[in-house]
Automatic annotation (TrEMBL):
Domain Response regulatory: 42-164
Organism: Streptomyces bauhiniae
TM regions (residue ranges): none
Name of the protein in question: SpoIIE family protein phosphatase
Keyword entries, A-Z: Hydrolase, Phosphoprotein
Molecular functions per Gene Ontology: phosphatase activity
SMART domains for this protein: PP2C_SIG (SM00331), REC (SM00448)
The keyword Hydrolase belongs to this UniProt entry's keyword annotation: yes
GO BP terms: phosphorelay signal transduction system
InterPro entries: Bact_Sigma-Reg (IPR052016), CheY-like_superfamily (IPR011006), PPM-type-like_dom_sf (IPR036457), PPM-type_phosphatase-like_dom (IPR001932), Sig_transdc_resp-reg_receiver (IPR001789)
Modification type 4-aspartylphosphate: residues: 91
């Protein structure tokens, strides 16, 4: 009886205020343009003297006038705070909106309100002469600098504005870098947690795997693999490849791997299992053109024979012991279509004899589609067989063999591989 597959649930998009995001982007773009092009600065003076006489005539380092806008209160400041404003001069004597002098924290309440209103703008606090303690507290709260109102001159103020703008830009860059690192760490922890942990307790087999995603700075791609041992002693292993290697393909690969493990532990195998996986793929994929190749093997409890199913995937490589082990491909005449291509497709199961001692290597096409030289022909399965044969003759086995194989493929290609690469090796020693 086919296993029912739940319909895909609609995932709501993350909400975000488009107007706010646009304003932030424009503000940060204005900072970048000013730094890169040396454009004239614009300053917003927030103080209750409508004449604006507090600030002398200002010029930047190139001698160009610094534009000064004046707001008498925070309401006016909000209207004048356009993306081309680079710095806010705030008179700390200005009363804060909705705050009395007797309230706790009222002394710097106006500064806190400005910082909330303009979190991405540089702010210079203006305070009474000699009140350095209040100015220092303003910097601790979030201002970039402080100046005494009665000691302002054009040169001092112009230099302070340029310093405050650059310091804010530097602080913003550091914050974004720290946030980016944190997101990268979280993504790496998440992706690492999604990589499989084979369930092979009690199996007389050795397991090794190598995984290299094609995406830059990623741990997970569209390739996926897994191996489990069922209560009857059968060892099931699989490897697959979702077309593409972006984050969507990686997520779909994880879904297929988890579904395969659940279905295998539930007792499905062969054509019935692949048919159900195709249903999962059809329900979960974002586009009807997306498909996945798959190779599954189920190794009998005595370890001497296995069932093989191929869904558009390259055949595994079998290595038997000897003075010079010679690898060969398992039969691939019954290779069925990739999952997601043909509704109602069938996938024959081929019985193969393994012998008493053997190594079985499952791999994705990223291992064989790299070039043998920059601009040269692809490695292909024949080239892979020759490469593995030579590495075996050098005494490489297990994890060392897989590491050398992936490393040589990258070296032959002359550059980093753009496709995901996954390789699994199962060894049985009598």
């Amino acid at each position: 009886m086919p296993v029912p597959v739940p319909r895909q649930r609609a995932v709501p998009a993350a909400e975000c205020g488009p107007a706010q995001v646009s304003a932030v982007a424009l503000t940060e773009e204005a900072y970048r343009d000013t730094a890169a092009l040396g454009a004239a600065l614009t300053v917003l003076l927030v103080e209750d003297d409508p004449s604006g006489a507090l600030v002398p005539e200002l010029r930047d380092s190139a001698g160009r006038p610094i534009r000064v806008r004046t707001a008498r209160n925070l309401t006016e400041a909000g209207r004048l705070l356009t993306p081309d404003v680079h710095c806010i001069l705030l008179d700390l004597a200005l009363p804060a909106a909705g705050c009395t002098d007797t309230e706790d924290g009222a002394e710097l309440a106006v500064l806190r309100q400005v910082l909330e209103l303009a979190p991405r703008h540089a702010v210079i606090a203006l305070t009474a002469s000699g009140d350095a303690e209040r100015g220092a507290e303003a910097v601790r709260v979030g201002a970039q600098d402080y100046l005494f109102r009665d000691e302002l001159d054009s040169r001092l103020l112009s230099r302070a504005i340029r310093y405050a703008v650059e310091r804010k830009r530097s602080d913003t860059a550091e914050r974004r870098l720290a946030e980016g690192r944190l997101r990268a760490q979280e993504n790496r922890r998440l992706e690492r947690g999604l990589l499989p942990t084979p369930l092979l307790e009690g199996a007389a087999l050795r397991f090794a795997a190598r995984y290299r995603p094609g995406r830059s700075r990623a741990l997970l791609g569209g390739d996926f693999y897994d191996a489990v041992r069922t209560p009857d002693g059968t060892v099931h292993a699989m490897i697959g490849d979702v077309c593409g290697h972006g984050p969507d393909e990686a997520a779909l690969g994880v879904e297929l791997r988890i579904a395969w493990r659940a279905l295998t532990l539930a007792g499905l195998c062969g054509d019935e299992l692949l048919g159900t996986l195709q249903e999962v793929l059809e329900h979960e994929r974002s586009d009807d053109e997306i498909f996945a190749t798959l190779c599954t093997v189920d190794i009998a409890p005595d370890g001497r024979r296995a069932g093989l199913c191929l869904a558009g995937h390259p055949a595994p490589l079998l290595i038997r012991p000897g003075a010079t082990p010679v690898p060969r491909l398992l039969p691939f005449d019954n290779n069925g279509p990739a999952l997601g291509l043909l509704p109602g497709a069938r996938w024959p199961r081929t019985q193969v004899e393994l012998g008493a001692e053997w190594s079985l290597m499952l791999y994705t096409d990223g291992l064989i589609e790299g070039r043998t030289s920059p601009g040269g022909p692809r490695l292909g399965q024949d080239g892979m067989l020759g490469m593995i044969h030579r590495q075996l003759s050098e005494g490489l086995r297990g994890e060392d063999l897989l590491r050398a194989a992936v490393s040589e493929v990258r070296h032959l290609n002359g550059d980093e591989l753009t496709d995901d690469v996954a390789v699994v090796l199962l060894d049985r020693v009598a």
